[in-house]
Amino acid sequence: MLVHSSTPPLSVVRKFAHLLELGDNDIRQEGELLRLREEVVRNIRSNRQLEADLDLMDLKIGLLVRNRVTLQEVVSHHKKLTKKNKEELSDMMALEKHKGLKSLSKDKREKLEAYQHLFYLLQTQPSYLAQLIFLMPQNKSTSFMETVIFTLFNYGSDCREAYLLLQLFTAALRHEIKLKVDQPQEVVTGNPTVIKMLVSFYRHARGQNALRDILGPAVREVLQDRTLSIRTDPVDIYKSWINQTESQTGHKSSLPYEVSAEQALSHPEVQQRLNIAITNLKSLTDRVLNAITSNIQKLPYGLRYTAKVLRDALQEKFPQASEDEMYKIVGNLVYYRYMNPAVVAPDGFDVVEFGVGSTLLPDQRRTLGSVARILQHSAAHKHFHGDSAHLRALNDYITHTHTKFRKFLHAVCDVSEPEERFNIDEYSEMVILNKPVIYISIGELINTHKLLLEHQDALCPQQNDPLLLLLRDLGKVPSVQALVGQSVPKYPPYPYSHATVLRIV
């Protein structure tokens, strides 16, 4: 078809594209692409560190305002950050002059090759890292995931690395469900490590654009429609009515200002205003729900496939659980954990743009919170009762909306396998023209080596395990000084093998 057709399908062209000869222009473009990818990874790492430092400084300033810490402590923290950054820069300045293989000394060339094979193995065999995540304390595993692991896969910046990172997520999720989940509802009531990490990744990586595209227009409509009243608390409605009456008449109301919800609802005016608010709330919720259910293809593929794996893994471990229960858990992942925070606080996730100095008004935040609450109840098929009995009129609407959510979640999980999505099979690694490149710091390399040695017994139960053999070749964890060299030829004379190229950043 490729030879005889003047317009062959894209799938056919992609399948045979690697057979085309590379010209000088292709090589130059490949070099520029590698340079840009390195710059992107550097900027991501730098931005994450800056965000962490700024968050800590905000906390210090907040405590200062509340007289919880002294000004000297805030200044001291600033100096400490500056000193830490200077020390790190001073340690790594020499490394900036040498990239990749050139940053390691000549006599450590064999050790470097072993490290390249080690990181290639960790990339392509997700079971090792999937287990390692749960062998360390959760606070350390989160940090390890956000630095070393995301770095190892270059934040999923190309098809191969996005595929391998997704393989790691799903392997770790299956491992966590198999060993740590005793009841399906624990995925909802607890805080599973893998769920938390993958939601954070897909919400802040490419998924941030997805949230903006899916929710942005509907949220803007909700914020711009300031004529609608969405107060659903009977006491708030009652007080608003009293205040409005007093403003219009100029006389103090004879009714008591402080009342219970039951006393407030005894007034027909409060009932009428509540019914209007419920009608308005349904209208606004429909806008956001329609935006969600009509934009399935804009959801990150990795999130959709992970939802599918979550459903299948739970069904395999808990065959007695109902399908409805499974999809409530999937809804907790896709809506509550991934989308709900962006509905409640669109300004915090760049879902809508605000001018300098502008922010959401209290009434707008309350409206978005009410919409998010209804969507959350609908996804979980949770009716109002007890203290929220005045909202029971919404229960039929919640049941109807839950049916829409079920269809949406069925469609979310109806997704192709990663091999088809990324056009990768078991032979893809054999025909890679350029070695994969990992941008990693010396400190991350050493810390990963140290962690693997600490947990090698659990990771490598068999004596002939490939990881164990590589760790034996590497020996003890080296120091930074033992790794950094002075002068190495520009083009190392290594034949191609299954390994990655390490670039020190």
State mean pLDDT (0 to 100 scale). 81
Work out the strand percent. under 5%
Characterize the main sheet: 2 strands, parallel
Which shape, going by the Cα principal axes? Answer: elongated
Per DSSP, the total helix count is 22
Low-pLDDT windows of residues: 89-104, 486-497
- Roughly how much helix do the residues carry, as a percent range? 55-70%
- Structural class of the secondary elements? mainly alpha
Determine the N-to-C terminus distance. 45 Å
Query: What's the total count of β strands?
Result: 2
**Rg, Å, rounded:** 28 Å
H/E series: HHHHHHHHHHHHHHHHHHEHHHHE
Biggest β-sheet: strands ordered side by side in the sheet: 1-2
The oligomeric state is single chain
Structure in words:
- The chain has 505 residues and is an all-alpha fold.
- It contains 22 helices and two strands.
- It has a two-stranded parallel ribbon with strand order 1-2.
- Helix 4 packs antiparallel against helix 21, helix 7 (159-180) packs antiparallel against helix 9 and helix 7 runs parallel beside helix 14.
- The longest helix has 42 residues, at 24-65.
- It is elongated.
- The two termini are 45 Å apart.
- 27% of the residues are buried.
- Residues 89-104 and 486-497 have low confidence and may be disordered.
Record the SSE blueprint.
Blueprint: H1 10-16, H2 24-65, H3 71-96, H4 109-124, H5 126-135, H6 138-152, H7 159-180, H8 186-189, H9 193-204, H10 207-224, H11 234-249, H12 261-265, H13 268-293, H14 301-317, H15 323-344, H16 362-380, H17 395-413, H18 418-421, E1 437-440, H19 442-454, H20 456-459, H21 466-474, H22 480-483, E2 501-504
Parallel strand pairs: 1-2
Helix pairs in contact: 2-3, 4-5, 4-21, 5-6, 5-7, 7-9, 7-14, 9-10, 10-13, 11-13, 13-16, 13-17, 14-15, 15-16, 15-17, 16-17
